[in-house]
Structure formats: C-alpha cells, structure tokens
Amino acid sequence: MSARKAQMFGLAVVLTMMMIAAEGLSDLFATLGREYAVAASVSNALGFAFSPSIGLALAAMFRTDDRQRMILLTIPLLPNALLALSSPLTGLIFSVSDQNVYTRGPVFWVFAITYIYTIAIFIWVNIREVRRLRIREHHMLMMLCAIILIGTSLQVAFPQVRTAWVCVALVEIMYYIYLREIDFLYDPVTETRNRSAFERQLPNMAVHQTVGVIVFDVFRFKQINDQFGHPEGDHCLKMVARAIEDGFAQTGECYRTGGDEYTVLAPSVNEAQIHEALKRTLAALKQLRQQTPALPRISYGYRIYNRDNGDNILTVIEEADAQMYAYKNMQGFGALA
After folding, report:
1. CB neighbour burial string for 139-178, b if at least 16 within 10 angstroms, e if fewer
2. Residue 190 to residues 103, 186, 230, 236, 310: CA-CA distances in angstroms?
3. What strands, in cross-sheet order, belong to the sheet with 261-267?
4. Which DSSP symbol is given to 4?
5. How far is CA 81 from CA 46, 157, 209, 279, 299, in A?
6. What contacts 268, CB < 8 A, 6 or more positions away?
7. How many C-beta neighbours within 10 Å does residue 6 have?
8. pLDDT digits over 3-27, tens only?
9. 61 vs 129: CA distance, rounded Å
10. Where do the domains of the chain lie?
11. What does the pLDDT average to over 187-191?
12. Residue 192's closest CA among 231, 134, 252, 247?
C-alpha cells in the first residue's frame, strides 16, 4: 500500500474511532441525568458533524492526482457540519433537552443525505478503480458496500439499533485486507497483474482443454531508461501493457512477469484468435507510437497448451519464451512490432 493510501486509510480509522467514542459517550451521558445534557449535546454535535468525512477519506485513497475534484466533493459536507455544530443551540439536526432527552431535529435529513452521499462517493470511486484496473476480485468489494449501506440505513431508520459504526469498523478491517490482496496481485507501475498473480493462476489454467500462452518482450528497454530516464521508461511500460490488455481484452489476461516482459494466458483459444488479438495489440501500439515516437518495439512468441496432448503448462511457457527470443534475435520486420 502506498504512503498516500496508508495515510488516508489511517485518517479514516482515526475518524471512525472518534465517532464510535462520540456515540458511546452520548449514550453514556444520556443515562447520567440532566446535569450531563450539555456533554451529551456536544458529543452528538461532533458525531453528526464529522462522521460523513469517513467515506471521503476512504475515497481519497484512489486517484490522488485528482485533488481538485476531491476538494469539490468535500463542499457538500460543510452545510451539514455547520448545522450539526450549531444544533446544541438551534436544534436543527438534533436537540438535547434540559432533561437530557435526545430528539432528531427538523433538518435531520440533511445529515442523512450527506452521509449517504459520502458512502455513494466511496462506492463510485471503488467501482471506477475496478473498471480501470479490470479487477476480477470485486465480489468482496460489493459485499463490503452492501454491509455498510445496510448497517447505516438500519440505524437511520431505527435510531435505537446501533449498527452503523459496528458495520463501518468491520468494513474497514475487511477493506484493508482486500486492498492488501490487490496490492499483492497487481504491478504498481503498469497496473496489470504481476508475477505473483501469474503463478497463482497457472494451476487453474492447466484444467482447460487449451490455453494460449503469449510472451512479449520490450525491445531495448534499457536504452529508453538510459536516454529518457526511468519515469519515461515506466510510462512506456504502462502504454505497452495497455496495448496488450486492449488487444487481448476478450481473449485472455495480461501479466507483467518480468522487468520488461509480459505474458498473456488465454484459455480456450485457437491460433486464429491469437492472431486476431495480436493484430489488435500491434494496431494499438502503432497508434500510441504516433503520439510517443520513443515507444519501444516489442517481440513476441506464443504456444498453445493442449491438455489432450499431455502438454505441461510450464513447458509450453518455456517454448513460447524461446520463440519470442528467437524472433527478437532475428530483428526483422516479422519479429518486432
């Protein structure tokens, strides 16, 4: 997990702990009699004012380059915060009587809508990341979104049912585990699946009747780094990865299996389908090269694993790799694209 993600996640956890404490204190003060009415009112004000910010803190973990948009998304939280902090005097969001009796105020709906708004932002950002990274492991994420929606909705509808913060705390723990799993499976530079994901997937591939194994190598990548610097080299690696993913989007899954190497695993394909996917990949690279002339060429090789022939998937990968290097050494028009 990057430092920025860890920072925002830590902020969300701290805010959650503060909100749990505020809710617990407000419940405690409510049982201690009228002399604690002011304390109950203050703890409620803090809870209503700052609890919606948790959803945005979690959402801000992603796409940190889009800070201006995140600031704009924060603006709707301000009216709720002002109304909540002034409620001990105005009773707009809530009120606590001199007898220490809590009641919802006439504009409590402002808090409810603001809270749901930030949860919706959190869900939207995660769905966008799933689509952008083409993450298949999204079922757990959908379950977490359902838990937080159900838990908070129950407490909004039935104030005596304290489910919101239990669900939020549970979701944060499971969300952290989910993010660590994604970090383990995805390469941070190219945002494709990494070698760990590749090795994890290999046993699953062996059960298919056929599996296309396509190996790519970025030609003379070291020269790109030496001439233009590592940031430009990383940019080129990312563009090559995107071209391969676009070309094989309907056919297989791309993995970064080495510093400048990619492997596609394409179950249940034939040679014609591989050729079509390669054409799409090369066309995408050609188009990208018009924008970035320094984009390096690639060499590739492929083999098809056939279970009925008694093939070994590891041997097939080695054969595809050997073909790729043979084409690379040819340095001809048919070898490099």
Report:
1. eebeebbebbbebbbebbeeeeeebbbebbbebbeebeeb
2. 53, 8, 13, 9, 34
3. 253-256, 261-267, 210-218, 298-306
4. H
5. 9, 21, 60, 55, 58
6. 208, 209, 210, 211
7. 13
8. 777 888 888 889 889 888 888 888 8
9. 11
10. 3-185, 195-330
11. 86
12. 134
Collapsing DSSP to helix, strand or coil, 102 comes out as: strand
Beta carbons within 8 Å of 164's beta carbon, 6+ residues apart = 151, 152, 154, 155, 156
- Distance of alpha carbon 96 from alpha carbon 73, whole angstroms: 31
Closest CA relative to residue 23, chosen from 130, 131, 146, 161: 161
Q: Is CATH 3.30.70.270 correct for 195-330?
A: yes
Residue 68 identity: Q
- Tell if the pTM clears 0.70, that is, is over it: yes
CB atoms within 10 A of CB 181: 12
At 255, is the pLDDT very low, low, confident or very high (cuts 50, 70, 90)? Answer: very high
The predicted pLDDT at position 198 comes to 92
Which residue has tokens 């190996």? 215
Q: What is the token pair recorded at 155?
A: 């407490």
Are 194 and 185 contacting, i.e. CB atoms less than 8 angstroms apart?
Answer: yes
Q: What is the pLDDT of residues 111-145, one digit of tens each?
A: 999 988 998 888 888 888 777 777 776 788 888 88
Q: Per-residue pLDDT averaged across 23-44, rounded?
A: 89
Q: What is the DSSP string of 154-175?
A: HHHH-TT---HHHHHHHHHHHH
pLDDT tens digits for range 285-327 = 888 888 877 778 888 999 999 988 888 889 999 999 999 888 8
Q: Per mean pLDDT, which range of 99-103, 199-203, 325-329 is the poorest?
A: 325-329
